[in-house]
């Protein structure tokens, strides 16, 4: 998970081309699908992958975009193991994703970086709990 901190793009949004309205629509659509499918593991995970792919694309960094297939594969493996639809975890997961979307939408690179780091910490915690 250490490389995820380096690879996670939201903190770089402020230093690169800003997310376009199309980028924001893709992120928001995936987030809405996550919310709608929060008790359906497969549909939720697919929406979660789309969310992170859309965030990655919004950075407009060619190197990260070339790595997106590998990053998505890693995320699939992690998300499959860390999905927790219970009332103690799902609201927090959705709030973390919304916080990142809001930070990107408001072009707040510091808040985006903090939101990304919070998401990584939560995933790391869940992985440790199940291993």
Question: How would you characterize this protein structure?
Answer:
Residues 1-20 are annotated as: Disordered. GO terms for molecular function: DNA binding. This is Galactonate operon transcriptional repressor. The protein is mostly helical and 131 residues long. The protein has one domain: GntR ligand-binding domain-like (Four Helix Bundle (Hemerythrin (Met), subunit A)), CATH 1.20.120. 75% of the residues lie in helices and 0% in strands. It is built from seven helices and no strands. It has helices at residues 2-7, 21-36, 41-58, 62-66, 68-82, 90-105, 109-130. Helix 2 (21-36) runs antiparallel to helix 6 and helix 6 (90-105) runs antiparallel to helix 7. The longest helix is centred in the last third of the chain and has 22 residues, at 109-130. The two termini are 14 Å apart. Residues 9-15 have low confidence and may be disordered.
SS summary, helix count = 7
N-to-C SSE string, H for helix and E for strand: HHHHHHH
What's the shape? globular
CATH topology: Four Helix Bundle (Hemerythrin (Met), subunit A)
Number of E strands:
0
What's the main sheet like? Answer: none
Count of all domains = 1
State mean pLDDT (0 to 100 scale): 87
Radius of gyration from CA coordinates: 14 Å
Stretches with pLDDT under 50, minimum 5 residues: 9-15
* CATH level-two architecture: Up-down Bundle
In percent terms, what proportion of residues is strand? under 5%
CATH superfamily: GntR ligand-binding domain-like
Structural category: mainly alpha
The CATH class assignment is Mainly Alpha
GO molecular function: DNA binding
Keywords: DNA-binding, Transcription, Transcription regulation
InterPro entries: GntR_C, TF_FadR/GntR_C
Protein name: Galactonate operon transcriptional repressor
């Amino acid at each position: 998970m250490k490389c995820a901190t380096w690879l996670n793009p939201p903190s770089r949004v402020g230093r690169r081309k800003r997310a376009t309205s199309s980028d924001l629509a893709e992120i928001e659509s995936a987030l809405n699908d996550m919310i709608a499918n929060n008790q359906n593991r497969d549909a939720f995970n697919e929406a979660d992958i789309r969310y992170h792919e859309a965030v990655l694309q919004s950075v407009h960094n060619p190197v990260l975009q070339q790595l997106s297939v590998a990053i998505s594969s890693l995320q699939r493996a992690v998300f499959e193991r860390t999905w927790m639809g219970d009332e103690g975890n799902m609201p927090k997961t959705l709030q973390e994703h919304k916080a990142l979307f809001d930070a990107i939408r408001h072009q707040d690179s510091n808040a985006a970086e903090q939101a990304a780091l919070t998401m990584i910490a939560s995933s790391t915690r869940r992985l440790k709990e199940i291993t």
